[in-house]
Amino acid sequence: MALPTGDVLGILADNLRLRGSVLPLPSSDATRWAEDLGLDRGGATVLYTGQMYQLMPYIERLVAAERRLGDSPLARFSGLGRRLNRVVNVSAFLGRPSRREREEATRVPRAVAALLRDAGVRFGILYEDDLYSGALAYDLGLDAVVATQARRVQERLRGNGVRLAITIDPHTTHMLRTVYPQVLPDWDVEVKSYLEVLAERERASVPVHGEVVLHDSCMLARAEGVVEEPRRLLAGAGFAVCEPEQSGRLTWCCGGPAEALYPEQALEQARRRVEQLRAAGGVCVTACPICLVNLEKAADGTVTFRDLSEVLLEARELELQPIG
Amino acid sequence: MSTVVSPELAERVREAGAFDAEACMNCGVCTATCPLGLDVLPRRVFRYVMLGLEDRVRDESETVYSCLLCRLCEESCPAGVHIAENVRTLRRHLNRSLYGLEV
Lengths: 324, 103
Known about the structure:
The complex is a heterodimer of chains A (324) and B (103).
Chain A: H1 5-19, H2 27-31, E1 45-48, H3 52-70, H4 78-85, H5 99-118, H6 135-139, H7 143-159, E2 164-167, H8 170-183, E3 190-193, H9 194-199, E4 210-214, H10 218-223, H11 228-236, E5 239-242, H12 263-280, E6 283-286, H13 289-299, E7 305-307, H14 308-315
Parallel strand pairs in A: 1-2, 2-3, 4-5, 4-6, 6-7
Helix pairs in contact in A: 1-4, 1-7, 3-5, 5-14, 12-13
Chain B: H1 9-16, H2 29-33, H3 43-51, H4 54-59, H5 61-66, H6 72-76, H7 83-97
């Protein structure tokens, strides 16, 4: 059973308004991926994470707690939890993800930084000024707090002299490129997915590595029209791309967007999508953290899922430096 | 089942944002392509709004929030209805009218 929708919405909105994220995470976990990389602060071009990959272990904790609470008598006290959350960050009581989970969450931003460097892209990062975009709140129609967050992001980008933000995940890309210009009339930052930036640059092909199944993110393929770029990059990295039954602009959702309110429905949809991907055969790659986590959970080890950035990195024989 | 009709419902929903459901021809392609198989969303709930059936919209609130906003329905909609944005508008309307949230 799901927790009362209004209370969950209220907690997410209050968190974004009061704490800058639907699920606040310690600043050190948001910036840990950049340790030891020696990246400049700010500048005309930055790699912007929107904290999405870093948030994933925390989101999984939240979803697990929702599933437990939804079936318990404590669900009746969710309204009290919402009121308490205005004073104390109740999500902090979910506990911090393990060190291993938090280390895993640094891998993709580090992989993307390595790929961009290898491609000759000069960029800085924003460290603690790299804020969450408000993507989940936007989907849920919490537009007032999203507008507040958009202005915060704009101030940080302007303060750091940013003209081009290179994004990692589809949801932050959509927010900064498509939503923010609607919310902020004076929004003037160019936004590109790292896949688009890499695909613009000619690269020498490498030997064939094998086949991969590509799962397109709905947000990236349909909302942002990024369909050819991941295929071109995979082909250039020596992979034959296997298309599942539904792909490209007609891709099938992983179910993840329903997870915050209705985790069971999200999991059921993920299982249906896993069957399509399994039928296509081979290792499955995707460029979205929400798709990755949701599909991995549904597959329960029966299908191997990889983030696209890590597959590209390995094919280029680039090493992901361990942190610390 | 008796119900109260609120002729101004569509106008109140539009106060929350863009809502172009009147272009819907009720052909059912959206329902046929929906990954979740939501048989109420979007066209029936949109009809409820156009007919002023606020109770029916509220009864279907879980369905409104279940939508994945994946936009697969929009790829096939012959009338070019902005289905996902309409659903977001309905959520804003419900956030305010049902849950008392600032939108």
